[in-house]
Amino acid sequence: MARFLGLLIATLSVCLQAVLAQNAFSGAVGFGAIATGGNSGSTVHVTNLADSGTGSFRDAVSGSNRNIVFDVAGYIVLKSAVSLSSSITINGQTAPGGGIGLMGAEISASGKSNIIIRNLRMRQGTMDSDTGKSAFNMGDAKNVILDHCSFAYGQFDSIDAVGAVNITVSNSIIAFPIGQQFGAHVETGPSTFYGNLWVSAHNRQPLSKDNTQYVNNIVYNYQAAYTSANTGGYFSHDIINNYFIAGPSTSSAGDDYYQMDNKQSVYATGNFLDSNKDGALNGAAANSVGSAVVLSKPWASTSLGLATNSAAAAVTSVLANAGATPRDEVDTFAVNTVKSYGKSGTIYKSQADTGLSNGGYGTLTATSTKKRAVQFAV
């Protein structure tokens, strides 16, 4: 009965998604694509890199119905967590020069709704003394889409989505979590993870205690990758055309699917595992998912339509296009680590351990020159 009710709820959610217009932006996919953001509200400019005050990012996100653009580039060094308002769109692609990033504290959409974030770098790191916070937190939020974002150095999780409803994380880089060394934790859902690059995490890539679409993701140098957990409850998972690649920190390549018990129902096809760490991409099919119940077709009617790339083609596409643009030092390091195909990679305890500039956070060019036009591949 519990499994039947779960599938019924999932089916109704998919039907609702099909009925509602995908308002987020052209090319938006998945359950979070229904987010309306602040596209119909007022345009607010971020004009400086200050932590707070007039013209700051913190001030810009303090009100609802806002379409936020950036007149400056560089890192905003946060002294404390930033709480977003509902019904906002954050257009990181409008920043000039090297783009915009936030470092040193959590970005929180907890309890909020209808949020669109694109082309934003969120890097918490050890500058944040609160180890119980994450790089991005959307607990109990609904209708959220994160696209072409770059997450790094999350302490509790890179992305925390406990209690979140209708979320998408697409075309993003989720790399080098520290502290717990976890990628993403999702409960409630449904959620869509599409075209993301996951690099050097202990576990939770993601932890899916919800009905999930997981399509065209690349997971590198994991200790455990796609996870549900034995206490997760009854959920359905469409796992399609993903590539799991073992690295130096991978003690058991067979943990590409982890804690997937018979409470889980899984449609898995087109997935590959490269387990030999030989410096070449040469994996084999990997579609046996623990003791989960095998579904003969996807639970979500839109999942197969998302799978436009094979697993191998997804590697090429994701390595070329995922994350915020233009590629900065941290994301370039993450991508080059993956391109070693088993030869390099470490699960870090601190951003400083990467040896990158600016204490490991990398350097973004700070400028207020003319904005650049960015076209995203999705």
Automatic annotation (TrEMBL):
The UniProt keyword set, sorted, is:
Glycoprotein, Lyase, Metal-binding, Signal
The residue range of the signal peptide is: 1-21
Q: Which GO terms label this protein's molecular function in UniProt? A: lyase activity; metal ion binding
Q: Does the keyword Ribonucleoprotein belong to this entry? A: no
Q: Which Gene3D superfamilies match?
A: Single-stranded right-handed beta-helix, Pectin lyase-like
Its domain of life reads Eukaryota
The reply to whether Metal-binding figures as a keyword in the UniProt entry is yes
Q: What is the official name of this protein in its record? A: Polysaccharide lyase family 1 protein
Which species is listed as the source? Viridothelium virens
